Amino acid sequence: MTIAEIALRAGVSKAAVSRYLNNGYISSEKREAIRRVIEETGYVPSQQAQTLRTGKSRMVGVIVPRIDSESISRVVAGISRVLEQQGYRLLLANTDNNVEKELEYLEVFRSGNVDGVILIATMLSRAHRQALAALGSPAVLIGQRMEGITCIYHDDRGAAAALCRLLLGNGRRRIGYIGVTPRDKAAGAARRAGWQDAMQQAGQLADPLWMEQSDFSIDGGYAAAGRLLARAPDLEGIFCATDSIAIGAKKRIEESGRRIPDDIAIAGIGHSRLSELVRPRLATAHYYYQTSGEEAARDLLEMLEQGIDRKKQLMLGYEIHPGESI
After folding, report:
1. What angle do CA 28, 34, 37 make, to 5 degrees?
2. Is the pLDDT of residue 56 over 70?
3. How close are the terminal C-alpha atoms of the chain, in Å?
4. What is the pTM of this model?
5. Cα–Cα distance between 61 and 112 in angstroms, integer?
6. In angstroms, what CA-CA distances link 152 with 33, 155, 179, 326?
7. What residues contact residue 130 under an 8 Å CB cut-off, 6+ apart?
8. pLDDT of 188-213, one tens digit each?
9. Which residues contact 33 (CB under 8 A, 6 or more apart)?
């Protein structure tokens, strides 16, 4: 089925059909006639032809670090809700927290058929800045901060400090930390800095012996807690960079015979569903993940539809949920 055949069946010109398909103005009578023919014939416009004609694919590339992450799924839900309302589709690229894959997908999207890119970033480097500059299409970062590009990120340092202050309550002083690689400026470096801030404000030493590193998994948190408790068995609390790490650490603590929170308190970040299901309920910080996706999508739409790039730097807040583990 071609535009000419639709025009013949509907008794209108080819130009009228073209305007209909591109949301241009035509009379209500012609619009109804064309709609009826398209419905009867099941005509679907060629995406390739539309891209050639308009120069736009109405496709957005979204690069995610883990497709099975609850927090990432909330971000993507926010992106999808806003973009799909405006007729855009998402092309997801999963990197499995591999920095090289992030760069590879930026190159794929540079040469591929997308109008813009949203990168849910992990460990940014000079290579990322170069790849984003060479992209040739609008881009927005989520979860990290980089000057000169629109970013939506979280108050990681503030949330970490607030949770550590809770851990330091009730006379507790020896608070350990299980984090992720400091190459991750948000979940790694900023959350560790928040722990250090709270310890220093309380007049406590942020002892390097009280620090451990994990990946983002429950198993990683379990193993890291084992190493930490073997080295510092008299800790009174542990702050973990994520809920998943905290839940793994909680299991290891309980296996050691310690009670939570009587013997040792624990907290994480993310307010995952699992944090509400474990007992005692995990103390955590709620991040507005879906909102971050919505904001990023709106900023990208502003660039795509209006040609406006404000290089916005938006830091979202957080809510502390004390749970029962402190």
Report:
1. 140
2. no
3. 66
4. 0.82
5. 9
6. 45, 10, 22, 30
7. none
8. 999 999 999 999 999 998 999 999 99
9. 10, 11, 12
| Nearest one of 211, 197, 206, 63 to 123, comparing CA atoms | 63
Higher-pLDDT residue of 16, 220: 220
Residue at token pair 């308190």? 265
Query: Nearest to residue 118, comparing CAs of 89, 86, 98?
Result: 89
Which residue reads 């927290």 in tokens? 97
**Tens of pLDDT, residues 97-138:** 888 999 999 999 987 789 999 999 888 999 999 999 999 899
- Cβ within 8 Å of residue 94, ≥6 positions away: 64, 65, 66, 67
The band of 52, judged by pLDDT with boundaries at 50, 70 and 90, is very low
Sheet with 265-267: list strands edge to edge: 211-213, 175-179, 237-240, 265-267
**Main-chain dihedrals φ then ψ at residue 152, nearest 5 degrees:** -120, 120
